[in-house]
Write a structure and sequence with these properties.
With 232 residues, the chain is α+β, with helices and mostly antiparallel strands. Helices cover 19% and strands 38% of the residues. The protein has two domains: 127 residues, Immunoglobulin-like (Sandwich), CATH 2.60.40; 74 residues, no CATH class.
């Protein structure tokens, strides 16, 4: 049956691992479409298949084609429509739609006649987030998500710091001073109201540490602010 044939065929992948240096490489950017292809070496092959090497000792079956009627069967995990196997008289194809970085790796196009024969393709997917598309000279792979996260945290901290400075809460009640009136920039408030369409609540606590100097010098007040940021 098909399961026995696949097991017998994939059992040769460890032996073939030694000769992967003869493979060719296909490069594509993340989110694009790519078609892997290999020459059809036997018109009479009864079974043709694609699989991916996920480790030195494990292969993942993608699809199997029965050459008699060109009927394609997709293996578990590859039924989503992202992978499409086809063929003509000279070439075997594997189309991958909207490739992800995780799709990178070694792909084997195999033919099973008397013994299995393999062609090897190394697929390299370059991660390219949308905000980097116009900067072809910069490498944005890998670190893009981390950079975005750090920028988000930085901008939130800047907004909080600006809000604190603009409010200038006076907590020196012991000196009989009334809190000074303060206003908040409407543009700043709109920034809080539109953060990812989530409700954000900022609670500010102010404390005063006083450091008295000689009478010839002014009293220095240091305000320490604690910003508590919570999301519902």
């Amino acid at each position: 049956g098909m399961n026995f044939t696949l097991i017998a065929t994939l059992g040769f992948c460890n032996l073939f691992w030694i000769s992967v240096s003869g493979s060719h490489t296909v490069e594509v950017r993340q989110g694009e479409e790519v078609t892997l292809r290999c020459s059809n070496i036997s018109e009479y092959s009864s079974l043709t298949f694609w699989f991916k090497l996920v480790s030195r000792t494990k292969a993942s079956c993608i699809s199997v084609m029965f050459r008699a009627d060109r009927r394609v069967a997709y293996c578990e995990g590859f039924h989503s429509g992202s992978f499409e196997m086809s063929s003509n008289s000279s070439t075997i194809f594997l189309k991958i739609r909207r490739v992800a970085v995780s799709d990178s790796g070694l792909y084997f196009c195999g033919f099973f006649t008397i013994f299995p024969v393999f062609n090897v393709i190394r697929l390299h997917v370059k991660g390219k987030p949308s905000f980097c598309l116009d900067f072809h000279s910069q490498e944005c792979d890998g670190m893009a998500n981390l950079i975005l996260a750090l920028l988000t945290v930085f901008l939130i901290n800047v907004i909080i710091a600006l809000a604190v400075r603009m409010r200038k809460l006076q907590t020196a009640a012991a000196e009989g001073q009334k809190p000074q009136g303060s206003t908040v920039n409407p543009l700043l408030l709109s920034c809080f109201q539109n953060l990812d369409s989530e409700e954000a609540v900022m609670t500010l606590y102010a404390g005063t540490i006083r450091n008295r100097r000689p009478a010839s010098q002014e009293e220095v007040e240091t305000h320490v602010f604690y910003a508590l940021w919570t999301r519902e």
